[in-house]
């Protein structure tokens, strides 16, 4: 319980002063949740900082945090970057949350390296710092990471694609994210592993970066079709890129004989699986990341034990055309658990 000590006039009488001190000491020692990390009502204060406020993935993450904070009786402060890559706003948010006396900070960092010094300042104040979805560089910049296993997400759609091709020779296009971004590399490498091939395999006839954007995904697919018209399997970093690829294939009359697989599991993407535009996607769970992160801070406030290391928040292959040997769930499950 937080205590506001009354202002004492310069000439306070000794008895009144003694009563004030004794009252403050008694209040400061009562119950759990007292002191730093609690608001004026004794609730644990938690900060959530997302990359932006507009991306549906982070909107769902915020909803998950709000729901869990309400269930745990905690107070949630929220902030976000003004745009993808906005590190400055996230640093400001961290400083504001430190000043407000939060017990923990949950963050999806915009700049995985530049944010670390600000997070280290929070950790030095005994604030639990948890990365959601995206690890810092180095990962030790936070106490813990709650995120999708992106390598596994790629492996699932790679294994699915291998089974769905049913022995047909593959001519593969990989529509990736951008150089040097960990999540993109993990998904790409996972797809290759799941399919059973290595980097540089001749079955990969075209690779293009899309930045996860639909328009760039369409352009990338058009470029690949010019380079290798016989492409019959497309891996995409996410569903916007997948829908861009689908539009390019449809314009060439190739949408019926080309398999598209992807990662994310947003509601738009799952609907695209249901309609047949995408064959399968690996679904991740931002709401679960946030809920588990909030609960970890509340537990820290109760027992002083900090969450540490990596917590896998789960990934599920979503398709309506299941393949033997590849575990999946249908689009009814996908739509019930999607985001956006």
Main beta sheet, described? 6 strands, parallel
| CATH topology value of the largest domain | Rossmann fold
How much helix is in the residues?
Answer: 40-55%
Which sequence of strands runs across the widest sheet? 2-1-3-4-5-11
Average pLDDT, rounded to a whole number, is: 89
Give the DSSP E fraction (strand runs of 2 or more residues): 15-25%
Provide the CATH architecture of the largest domain.
Answer: 3-Layer(aba) Sandwich
Number of domains: 2
Q: Which outline best applies?
A: elongated
Provide the CATH top-level class of the largest domain. Alpha Beta
Low-confidence stretches: 1-35
Which H/E pattern describes the elements?
HEHEHEHEEHEHEHEHEHEHEEH
Can you tell me the CATH superfamily of the largest domain? Response regulator
Give the total of beta strands: 12
Gap from first CA to last CA: 38 Å
Q: Structural class per helix/strand content?
A: alpha/beta
- Distinct helical segment count: 11
């Amino acid at each position: 319980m937080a205590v506001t000590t009354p202002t004492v006039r310069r000439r306070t009488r000794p008895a009144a002063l003694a009563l004030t001190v004794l009252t403050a000491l008694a209040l400061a020692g009562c119950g759990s949740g007292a002191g730093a990390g609690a608001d004026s009502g004794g609730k644990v204060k938690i900060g959530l900082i997302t990359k932006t406020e507009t991306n549906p993935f982070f909107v769902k993450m915020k909803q998950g945090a709000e729901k869990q904070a309400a269930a745990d009786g905690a107070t949630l402060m929220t902030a976000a970057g003004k745009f993808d890559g906005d590190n400055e706003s996230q640093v400001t948010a961290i400083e504001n949350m430190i000043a407000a006396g939060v017990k923990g900070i949950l963050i999806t960092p915009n700049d995985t390296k530049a944010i670390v010094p600000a997070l280290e300042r929070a950790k030095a104040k005994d604030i639990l710092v948890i990365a959601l979805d995206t690890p810092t560089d180095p990962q030790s910049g936070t106490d813990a990471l709650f995120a999708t296993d992106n390598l596994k997400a790629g492996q699932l759609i790679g294994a699915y694609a291998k089974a769905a091709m049913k022995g047909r020779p593959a001519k593969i296009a990989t529509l990736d994210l951008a150089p040097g971004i960990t999540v993109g590399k993990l998904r790409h490498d996972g797809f290759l592993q799941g399919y059973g091939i290595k980097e540089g395999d001749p079955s990969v006839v075209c690779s293009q970066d899309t930045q996860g954007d639909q328009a760039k995904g369409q352009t990338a697919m058009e470029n690949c079709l010019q380079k290798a018209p016989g492409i019959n399997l497309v891996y995409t970093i996410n569903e916007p890129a997948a829908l861009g690829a689908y539009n390019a294939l449809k314009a060439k009359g190739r949408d019926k004989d080309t398999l598209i697989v992807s990662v994310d599991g947003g509601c738009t993407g799952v609907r695209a699986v249901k309609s047949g535009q995408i064959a399968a996607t690996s679904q991740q769970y931002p709401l679960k990341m946030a809920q588990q992160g909030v609960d970890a801070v509340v537990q820290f406030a109760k027992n002083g034990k900090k969450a540490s290391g990596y917590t896998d928040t789960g990934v599920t292959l979503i398709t309506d055309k299941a393949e033997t040997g590849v575990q999946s769930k249908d689009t009814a499950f996908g739509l019930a658990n999607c985001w956006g």
